[in-house]
Model the fold of this input.
Amino acid sequence: MTVPLPLRSSRFSSFPLILWRFQPPQEKVASLLVTYDAETEGTATVNGRRVKFIVKVAADGKLKKEWFGMDCDGDGEVDRSAYSTEADYAQDEETEIISVSVTPTSL
Done:
C-alpha cells in the first residue's frame, strides 16, 4: 500500500510512504514495514546530450547524499550493478561525482 505523505516547504509536494505487512514463515507476530527514502529522477544536458540522473530523497523531501546514479552510456537507463561506472555510494558527506566522457559532473 502506498500512502502519499504531504510535505510542506519542500521541492516535492508529497513523499510516497510504502507500507507492507511482513510475517516470517512459522512466526506468530507480523511486522508493519515502512519506507524511509525514495528515489527521484530527472534529466540535464551534459555536453549537448540529455542525461538521466537518479538521486535518493529522504522522507522529509530533502535530497540525500548517499546514492547517486547517472546514465553515462546513453542507453536511457542507470546501471545499478556492482562495480558500475553509472552509480555510486558516497561516504558520509562526500560529493558524488561520475565521469561523462572526460568531463566530470557533480551534484
